[in-house]
Structure formats: C-alpha cells, structure tokens
Amino acid sequence: MKRIGVFVCHCGTNIANTVDCAKVAERAKDFPGVVFACDYKYMCSEPGQVMIQEAIGEHNLDGYVVAACSPRMHESTFRKCAERAGMNPYMVEQVNIREQCSWVHADKTKGTEKSIDITRMGVAKVAKNEPLFSTTIPVTKRALVIGAGIAGIQAAIDIADAGYPVTLLDREHSMGGKMAQVDKTFPTLDCSACILTPKMVEAAQHPNIEIVTYAEVEAVDGFVGNFDVTIRKKARYVDVNKCTGCGLCSEKCPKKVVSEFEMKLGTRKAIYVPFPQAVPNKPVIDAKNCRYLSEGKCGVCKKVCPTGAVDFEQKDELIVERFGAIVVATGFEQFDISKYEEYGAGRIADVITGLHLERLMNASGPTMGKIKRPSDGKVPERIVFIKCVGSRDEAKGRPYCSRACCMYVAKHATLLKEKLPAAKSYIFYMDVRTAGKNYEEFYARAQNEYDAQYIRGRVSKIFQAGDKLIVRGEDSLLGRPVEIEADLVVLAAGMDPQQDAKDLARTLGISYDQHGWFTEAHPKLRPVETHTAGIFLAGACQGPKDIPDSVAQASAAAVKVASLLSKKELTAEAQTARCDEAYCSGCGLCVSICPYKAIELKRISERVHGGTRERQVSSVNQGLCQGCGACSVACPSSAMNLKGFSNDQILAEVDALCQR
Ligand SMILES: Cc1cc2nc3c(=O)[nH]c(=O)nc-3n(C[C@H](O)[C@H](O)[C@H](O)COP(=O)(O)OP(=O)(O)OC[C@H]3O[C@@H](n4cnc5c(N)ncnc54)[C@H](O)[C@@H]3O)c2cc1C
Ligand code: SF4
Ligand code: SF4
Questions:
Q1: CA 544 to CA 547: how far, in whole Å?
Q2: What gap in Å lies between CA 549 and CA 538, rounded to an integer?
Q3: Where, by residue number, does the polypeptide cross the bilayer (predicted)?
C-alpha cells in the first residue's frame, strides 16, 4: 500500500473561516494509506512547502494530497514542491476545499464534513496514481501568421525582429485588411495608408518574412513545435517573378466589374491590383470575370504584357510546410446590414455603411475623396448616422458591443464637417462608449467643435421620399418622436466574425464562442493563447477591436511565439490519453470526438487461437493529445483512459465518497 501524506491549508481565513482545518487533518489520519496529516495557514508559502518536503522525507511518502484552493491556481506549485523532494510530480493530488467548499458554504460543521469527504476522495485517487513522465519534442523555429491585416502584419514583424522566420499569409491579393480601406484613423486622424503602408513595406522587405497572398490554409496536422500546414496558393494567372507591375495589362483589359475593395462604389478590371498601395503590387486575374478564362476570348493582357508574365495555364498549388507556432489574425467582417429591413439597407442606394463612407472620403477612393451620394452623385448636406447596427441587439443575435463604432462615427462626423463645412451630422445612439486614451476628448470635440448632433434613441424606419430619405425614430431623452429629412444615411455596421471562422477553427483545432469569435485560453491571464498549445490569437478575430488594441495583442502574441521558438525543445503533456488495445473495438468514436485530432485508427495483427487476426484499434498521438479527456468519456469499451484520470481512479473517488 502506498504511504500517503495529507496537507490541509487554511488559505488564511479563506478556508479556515468555514472549515475546521485541524479536524480535517485529524480525520484524514484514519484514511487508508495515510501515514501523515497536518494543517497549516498557507501551504503554498515557502514555509508550507518546506513542511511538505520535510514530511516527504521523514515519512517516506509515495504521494500526497493537498486540500487547498483550486488546482488551476497551485497544482504546478505543489507538483514542483514534490519534485524538489525527489517525488514524481504526478503523485500529487490537489483537492479544492476553497472554491468547492468554503466559498460556497456558510455552515462550518457542514463545510468541514464536505472537506473531509473531498479529502478522502483525493486520498483514494492518489493511492492509484502512477508516476508519469513527460517526453520532449523538438521545435521547428518558424512561425505562420494567418491573416495579414494590421494585427497579422504587426505580429509577423515582431516575430521576425526576434530573429525567427515567418510566413505571413492572406487570402486576399494584398495584405492590409480593413485598415487599407479606412481613410483616416481615430483618435489622431492620421491617414490610415500613411501608417499602414510603411508597415506593409517593412514586412515585405524584412529578410525573415515571406509574404504569401491569395492563399489559404487547407489542413493542419501535427502539434506544438511541429505543425504541418497545407497551404493552397491560388492561381493568380500572373507570374509575380516576371511581372514588373507596369500596369499595362489592367489598362488594356476590356472587362470592367465592380470593385470589392471600393465596396462596389467603384470599378476595377478583370486583371487588377486591388488598391494603389497594395503589397505585393502585382496584378491578379479574376478568373470568373476574365473573358479569356471564362469564354476563351480576348487574351489582351497576355498580348500587351512586355515581360510575358500573364500565364493562363497557372494552376492552384498545394504546399506543405512545417511551423513551430501559428498566430491567427483573420480579423472580422462587417455585419450584413440588409438584415435591418426597416432601414432599407441593401435596397436604398443612399443607405450605406461606415466602410462605404471611408471609401467615399478617401483621396484614392472611387470619388477621389469627394463625398457624393451613391444614387445620384449629389453632395449630401444632411447626414444621419445610426449606431449599433448589428451590435448590442439581441434580436439580431448580436448582443455584444463592436467597440470601434462609437469612435469611428465621431471620426466620420468630424471629417465630414472638415470636408463639407455646410453639412450637418445627426447621430442616433444608445450609449457612447469611448474607453480609450484620448477617446472621450475626441468625442467631445466632434460635438463641440464639429457640430455633430447626438440624438439618444433608436430609428424605427427609413424610407425614400423624392430624392430625400426620411429617418423616423424616437428621441428617448426628450421622450418624443423625431423625423429627419436626410440626404445620406450611414449605418455603423457592427463587427461579425469571418463567415468561415468556424471552418478555420476546426482546421486548426481551436475553439470559438457562440458567435464565432475565437476563444482565448483565459480571458484575463492567457488572452492571446488558445486552448491548443502553439496557436495564438491576434486582433479582431478574437472579438471586436480597434487598431491600437489589435496591434497590442499582436505584439503580445509575437512575444509568446518568440518565447516558444526560443526553446531548444518542448515538454509534452504527461497526462495524455492511452488506449488499451485489448479492450478497443475500433469503433472510432474517440477519433471523431477528439478536438485536437490526436487520435487515429491503426491496424494491428494479433495471435488468436494459433492463427493471426488483423483488426482496427485507436492510437493516440502523444504530442497532439492535450489531455482533455473527451475520448475516455466517449469510449463505450472503457479502452481509452486518461493517464492520471483513469476510470479506475475516478471510481475509487466515487467509492471513497460513498464510504462516508
Ligand atoms: C468603418 C470602420 C472604420 C474604422 N476606423 C477605425 C479607426 O479610425 N481607428 C481604429 O483604431 N480602428 C478603426 N476600425 C477598426 C479596424 O478596422 C480594426 O481594428 C482592424 O482592422 C483590425 O485588424 P485585424 O488585423 O485584426 O483584422 P482585419 O483588418 O479584418 O484583417 C484580417 C486579415 O485576415 C485576412 N483573412 C481573413 N480570413 C482569412 C483566412 N481564413 N485565411 C487567410 N487570411 C484571412 C483578411 O483578408 C484580412 O487581410 C474601423 C473599422 C471599421 C469597420
Ligand atoms: S484576358 Fe482577361 S484579364 Fe486579360 S485582358 Fe482579357 S479579360 Fe482582361
Ligand atoms: S502587363 Fe505584365 S508586367 Fe505589366 S503589370 Fe501586367 S502582368 Fe505585370
């Protein structure tokens, strides 16, 4: 029988106020296998740990139970403490008599009884613990950043500056993300391109950064330190190595279509560079609209290209590369405003979104920076802004705040007044949220110096009357209906996760919340890590964010990546799943349930009645397994067990509870 110690912590008065710790220790002395038990004010403190180490030596302990706070808090403290005394760290169990007992109960007698039960269960479990040993895995010193918006660019530059090679990948033709579409940025009103372009160029010219645009991640295998990523490089139909970016092809291409970058307010050719500062500044052919690729006619671009760069035969390319760490920085997309039928969005040409207005205000936009209504090109005089369109609206399934809209609406009102001094802005709002450095001052200036009129209330209807738009709503401060005759309505469309964010999450094996935002490992303490080791988050893919927050998170993710890549080797999780092949029926349930894609079926041959039989069993990749335990719960044959949490151990705990 194992020799077990029990150490009961008071956690100051946190536990001791509701639990008689001395009594718990006293009762623990009678539990099977317990040869020593004591209580102490702070077990995690230096003297507390010394006391444990001395007891391990003096009583020749094989394992011990600490009855204290949550294992999330101090499990590693007590494991290290055991290691220092020469005990295998997995021979330690921490049972939680604080969050699960003292903090949720007021009655000391009952609290003490429950603590005794919890401790007895811990002792029963540790009696069945086996020493576990971590293995080490090598680290590929290269990172992949998915998404080259401002967050991805910043993360890539920081990782590259730390000395590690980075592949910065984006599915669009150029890097830049939404910031490339934005005209000026709050709260400083500096031109977005002026601060973004140098970053894009810096990334493109960095010796440690490889830019891969017009590409997507198709599959991810492997595990932290060694992710094998399959990347689809889509056919551009232009050999970027031969192309000099002269632009002759786009000039001569006869096919004009609406430009996605210009929010359909402008046009582009079938062979095009999405915007003048695009990086890489090489064209791509939009196969759907190209006359040659869709109808076999034309081919003008190929004829005029002086370097023979146009290549209609180009095909998508699949490459597999290994990376040690991955940063996901895939950003957001604008909420689909057509879901607000009452606003005429998608039906009335002059009801637009903030991103449309950004393009109308931009000097290199479709109107060369002149603000004109999409319907008739008239300069608007009365502009109504509506905030929280697709944000903080339970009915539309968007209960969250999009965080940047309050500020960008104040920015739009300010810039409009600068461009059109005779114009008047009306802003319908629920609240104004300006929690950022210099944000409140910026909002106050929009009202006081730029004549923005804020109206608290919601708009119920927008309709066309002649060439005007009638905006009908309610001023909830004055408690009366309000109607404004407007020339242009701008909806502050909220931020939505990318439509395919969930697919990417499944490919990467990371989790997402009910809306589709990728989830961090811990909202306060691990805000840039995912639950999958080696995969980090940056920017608005984790939740709505403005540029300063996206950049800050990107740099934080880069530090995490650099610290991971700086290691010679990584220690693999010791508490992983193990399949007992003798019991495995090869049903494959565990394969489909494992969120980390750590299990596969393999064929084994075995001797049966003098012959050989082949059958299928599960096999766990110890590097990929994160020890979540989902497979052991799903396994109908009890073949799958989590080391340190085996069915046998859990049943022993249940038995101990029933022995009360
Ligand atoms: C109208 C408007 C005005 C704004 N004005 C301001 C402002 O003035 N100041 C401010 O601080 N913030 C502003 N913002 C917010 C700002 O746009 C965001 O904070 C910023 O764009 C977030 O950067 P990001 O890199 O996280 O995401 P994004 O800019 O969305 O970039 C994400 C990138 O990832 C790529 N991507 C997506 N999915 C994949 C995939 N599966 N594979 C590969 N690549 C992928 C995209 O193509 C894109 O390039 C504004 C937002 C809007 C809508
Ligand atoms: S072949 Fe296609 S891309 Fe080239 S010029 Fe003709 S339509 Fe434009
Ligand atoms: S004409 Fe040829 S070299 Fe010039 S931009 Fe087009 S593809 Fe590149």
A1: 10
A2: 9
A3: none
Residue 660 lies in a domain: no
Q: Mind listing the pLDDT tens digit for each residue in 250-278?
A: 999 999 999 999 999 999 999 999 999 99
- Same domain, yes or no: 588 and 440: no
Closest ligand 3 atom to 248 CA: 1
Q: Which of the ligands is closest to the CA of residue 305?
A: 3
**What is the Cα 407 distance to its own chain's centre?**
23
For ligand 1, residues with CB inside 6 Å are 146-152, 169-172, 177-179, 182, 185-186, 216, 329-332, 334, 354-355, 358, 404, 408, 411, 498, 504, 539-540, 545-548, 550
Residues with a CB atom less than 6 Å from ligand 2: 253, 255, 269-271, 285, 290-292, 298-301
Looking up residue 207, the CATH number of its domain turns out to be 3.50.50.60
Query: Of ligand 1's atoms, which has the minimum distance to the CA of residue 504?
Result: 41
Distance, C-alpha 410 to centroid of its chain: 28
Kindly write down the DSSP assignment for every residue of 250-294, as one continuous string: HHH---EEE-TTTTTSSEEESEE-SSTT-SS---EE-TTT-HHHH
Question: Does residue 653 lie in a domain region?
Answer: no
Domain final residue pick, 474, 496, 518: 496
Ligand having the closest approach to the CA of 248: 3
Q: How far is the CA of 296 from the centre of ligand 2 (A)?
A: 10
pTM: 0.84
Please answer whether residues 147 and 539 qualify as being in contact, where contact means their C-beta atoms are separated by less than 8 angstroms: yes
* pLDDT (0 to 100) of residue 559: 98
Ligand that comes closest to the CA of residue 294: 2
Ligand 3 contact via 488 beta carbon (within 6 Å): no
User: What's the pLDDT score for residue 416?
Assistant: 96
How much distance in Å is there from the Cα of 148 to the middle of ligand 3? 24
- For the CA of 299, the closest atom of ligand 2 is 1
CB atoms within 10 A of CB 633: 12
109 vs 104: CA distance, rounded Å: 13
Instruction: Answer for the pair 59, 88: CB distance below 8 angstroms, yes or no.
Output: no
**How does pLDDT run across 370-401, given as a tens digit for each residue?**
999 999 999 999 999 999 999 999 999 999 99
**Atom nearest to 358 CA in ligand 1:** 1
| Nearest-CA residue for atom 4 of ligand 2 | 301
Q: Give the structural domain span for 220.
A: 136-234+316-332+498-569
**What is the rounded CA–CA span in Å between residue 272 and residue 213?**
14
Residue 649 within any structural domain of the chain: no
As a whole number of angstroms, the distance between CA 437 and CA 418 comes to 23
Average pLDDT, the chain: 95
Query: Could you tell me the sign of the dihedral formed by the alpha carbons of 260, 265, 271, 274, in that order?
Result: negative
